[in-house]
């Protein structure tokens, strides 16, 4: 069998590896980029000089796949697909038109940045941040001495992270978002405002509840105009968000409400010979108990594995996802999984929640090893199953969210959690730990 994979991002990489490791099938990997397997989530780390360089952000290379027998076509753009004849049409960087037939096709085309059509959008100094080359452009522009003030549009994960990076580079940073807080898609205001306060404490100017309306400048951006003000800036980074890249299959494949390819639990699209993985495809949300769109690298990896195993002849169903995520900015850490109270209402879930806050360890433990942890557990009123959790601390409590992710997947109720066996030792935690104490608050 011949499998053609369009896209060598996280999802495409893991689909390819799984097929190559489990079959002797012919695998052809096509990507318009010049590199593969870039960890975009690490861009802010090297732009902010928290790591020495970007080299370690590439976790594999084309030679690894070629050694397993794959044929790789980099800097080759797929411009159309004949789904009836099963032929992929592409163009190389030299302008040569090529065709690749397939028995099975994997679309791993990822997502595209949301780019509002604002006046002045073509001025120099306005950047997006997804590809490695875009990270390089941001890094190089930020190195210019005349760049004193950087505006970041969008206070989601990428926006907050690159705002921190710019501040670490000594820039004045203005962070703007249409919502009332940062990270509003993942956290309730009681948690998001902790990050807002943290950003402001480190000199980042937050302008929330504002909509960008245009850019001003002669050749290069000099100002950002919103519905509430005008800000003089030397550089703009657009991090508003992303949407599924469905350009190749939108006229042939069934789509979700937001345009993502609608897939089953085996990553198959409405065309049984076409699979879709990663940010271009839907997922099954265990919290919602329904199809959803959650663009995360962790989800992309798992979808690639599921598609790969099924293409290798193993009947594997995706167990679903929770959308677990986390962020660490100037030592303030937030992690979440499932739905917040705010997002649950948006998706029609009738929920209640419990909050608790305590130190990670007993008060007699050294202060520099101890820190308060704030937790919220969200559960469905009728079934009482856990559908979300959020934690905040300067202590690394991130592993806790994996337990809540599994709890959502297994439909654990808030009442079961009340008496769940959690070990304690002063070196690690308290006997009356914050998870148990939070669950006990549930009426």
From TrEMBL:
EC number(s) on file: 1.6.3.4
Any one GO molecular function term: oxidoreductase activity
Top-tier EC class: oxidoreductase
FAD/NAD(P)-binding domain residues: 1-304
Domain annotation Pyridine nucleotide-disulphide oxidoreductase dimerisation: ranges: 333-430
Cofactor: FAD
Source species, domain of life: Bacteria
Pfam families attached to this UniProt entry: Pyr_redox_2, Pyr_redox_dim
Keywords: FAD, Flavoprotein, NAD, Oxidation, Oxidoreductase, Redox-active center
InterPro entries for this protein: FAD-bd_OxRdtase (IPR050260), FAD/NAD-bd_sf (IPR036188), FAD/NAD-binding_dom (IPR023753), FAD/NAD-linked_Rdtase_dimer_sf (IPR016156), NOXase (IPR058076), Pyr_nucl-diS_OxRdtase_dimer (IPR004099)
Catalysed reaction equations from the record: 2 NADH + O2 + 2 H(+) = 2 NAD(+) + 2 H2O
Gene3D superfamilies to which the protein is assigned, alphabetical: 3.30.390.30, FAD/NAD(P)-binding domain
Annotated coiled-coil segments of the chain: none
Family according to the record: Belongs to the class-III pyridine nucleotide-disulfide oxidoreductase family.
PANTHER family reported for this sequence: NAD(P)H SULFUR OXIDOREDUCTASE (COA-DEPENDENT), PYRIDINE NUCLEOTIDE-DISULFIDE OXIDOREDUCTASE DOMAIN-CONTAINING
Name the record gives this protein: NADH oxidase
Protein source organism: Eremococcus coleocola ACS-139-V-Col8
Gene that this polypeptide is encoded by: noxE
